[in-house]
Amino acid sequence: MRGRGRPIVIGLTGSIGMGKSAVARMFRRLGAPVFDADAAVRAVQGPGGRAVAAIEAAFPGTTGPGGVDRAALGAAVFGRPEALRRLERIVHPEVGRLQAAFLRASRGRRLVVVDVPLLLEGEGWKRVDLVVVVSAPLRVQRARVLARPGMTEGRFRAVLAHQMPDAAKRRCADVVIETGRGRLVTWRAVRGVVRAAAKLARARRKAHPSRPHARDRARHRDHRA
Fewer beta carbons within 10 Å, N or C terminal of the chain? Predict the structure, then answer.
């Protein structure tokens, strides 16, 4: 899936249990490179990761030879909003550096996908061309999440409290991909996004060959509260 110059950047997001990872795999099957922000977090927190020393300084006893002890770190920030914000101030810039490197390496591609769970909660939505929100009915979401090892209803609710509500995300989206209606429906929706992105890339090259990468998405601001 090659193009000329900078690619169309699709921002893929969705709340916990919505099926975002499955949608990301579909984009990969269609030839789109995907930046996985969760995998980037694991990399910067793993052995030798760039965030490990700063995390240990901020949360003593939460790291070891294998990098960050995820259970210990989770216990240190769970239910403590200020501690969570402190952790995010350490991790997010490092993940941002990896994403920037991914985008530099992807020049010449027609489109790429950045898979970022908190795309709309932060400023990431300003740096993409299309916002794609993955969504499913609450009953489907809950069943998926509570089937995960160690997950409880309380933890599920705590995660939801940290994320923008699904209804608000849907209002911010350029495209909503449903994952509660069968894999074929989801697959067709992903293919439709790829086709739309390819058309956008062709139109942009014709109309704005030197247009800056970031797009003004101020129209979404009213939906973020």
Answer: C
